[in-house]
Structure formats: structure tokens, C-alpha cells
């Protein structure tokens, strides 16, 4: 069953959500449209921004393993005006504009959604591998470039907008 992803009323791509890692979790290969390729750099910036923000927090003494919401909120409040914090807000603003639809065209409410560029993941792994470089290397012409993951809301009554910076456009999507 194909699912589609939209941004501001324009379709940016499709997925079949081939993987189903949990009751509300979905994952799969993402196939962008021509328009989708133009907006994906802003959307796929989320993963590198999260890695860089987490690294910066750890370097400044924040326990990045603390998964309590208030710990994340404190870290973000403390470092929102850093370059890493601003990049995270810009990416979150782009992601907050995404709409997920099922095969019938009905909106599927999500808690989180991420489209990742696997070439960027390979670069992140190589940059942070320290001595273990090239463990995750994209092959020329690798058929899977973009992956999508989402966690759906438990009771789809209202769109979740607890994405960092969702209310303020920062950067270009």
C-alpha cells in the first residue's frame, strides 16, 4: 500500500513502509518526486542536526542519555542560540510542515517523522568513527538513498506539533 508525503500541498514522495518495527512505528524506502528533491535538503538536515546538537551537548556536560522530556527541554533551552541549536530549529521547522497520507489520501497523524539521506549518514559515521572509517560506505549507484521513519499518534485526534521550532520558520526548507 503506497503512502505519500506532502509539504505545503505538494507531494514530495512516496513510501510503502516496508518495515514495521512496532505497533505505531513505520519505516521504509522513500521515493521522492522531482519537487521533493528540491525540498529534501532542508528536511533531511534533521538527522545531521540532531547528531551535531547531541555532540555539542555532550561536550558541554549534558547527559545525552537522559531521556526525560524535561532534560531535553533544558538542553534545548540552554543551547537554542548556538549554531547547532539554530540548525536543529531550522530542520524541525521544515519537518513540521510534512503531511503523511495513506493510500486513500487520508491524513495519518504522526508524533515524529524523519526522512534521512543515507549518503549523509555514511558521512556522519565516517566523520565520527575515529579510526574505524569506511565501515558504512555508500556504493556507487546505491539504490537506496532516502529512508523514512515515523511514529504514529496513538489516538489520531489532532496533529502533534511538539517538534522543536515548529512555530517559527528558521532557515529555508
Walk me through what this model shows.
- With 173 residues, the protein is of the alpha+beta class.
- The protein has one domain (3-152).
- Residues 158-170 have low confidence and may be disordered.
- It is built from 5 helices and 7 strands.
- Helix content is 35%, strand content 23%.
- The protein is globular, with a radius of gyration of 16 Å.
- The chain has a 7-stranded antiparallel sheet.
What oligomerization state is this entry in?
Answer: single chain
Percent of residues in helices comes to: 25-40%
Give me the strand/helix succession.
EEEHHHHEEEHE
Overall pLDDT? 82
- Counting helices, strands and paired strands, the structural category is alpha+beta
Q: Give Rg in angstroms.
A: 16 Å
How many individual helices?
Answer: 5
Question: In which order are the strands of the major sheet placed?
Answer: 5-4-1-2-3-7-6
Count of β-strands? 7
The overall number of domains is: 1
Q: Beta fraction of the residues?
A: 15-25%
Amino acid at each position: 500500500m503506497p503512502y505519500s508525503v506532502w509539504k505545503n500541498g505538494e507531494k514530495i514522495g512516496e513510501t510503502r513502509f516496508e518495515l514495521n518495527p512496532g505497533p505505531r512505528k513505520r519505516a521504509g524506502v522513500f521515493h521522492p518526486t522531482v519537487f521533493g528533491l528540491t525540498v529534501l535538503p532542508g528536511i533531511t538536515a534533521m538527522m545531521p542536526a540532531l547528531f551535531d546538537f547531541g555532540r555539542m551537548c555532550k561536550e558541554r556536560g549534558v547527559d545525552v542519555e537522559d531521556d526525560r522530556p524535561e532534560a531535553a527541554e533544558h538542553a534545548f533551552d540552554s543551547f537554542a542560540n548556538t549554531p547547532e541549536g539554530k540548525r536543529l530549529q531550522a530542520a524541525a521547522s521544515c519537518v513540521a510542515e510534512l503531511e503523511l497520507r495513506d493510500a486513500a489520501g487520508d491524513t495519518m497523524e504522526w508524533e515524529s517523522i524523519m526522512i534521512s539521506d543515507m549518503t549523509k549518514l555514511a558521512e556522519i559515521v565516517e566523520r565520527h568513527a575515529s579510526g574505524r572509517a569506511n565501515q558504512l560506505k555508500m556504493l556507487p549507484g546505491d539504490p537506496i538513498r532516502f529512508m523514512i521513519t515515523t511514529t504514529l499518534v496513538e489516538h489520531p485526534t489532532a496533529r502533534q506539533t511538539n517538534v522543536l521550532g515548529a512555530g517559527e520558520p528558521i532557515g529555508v526548507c
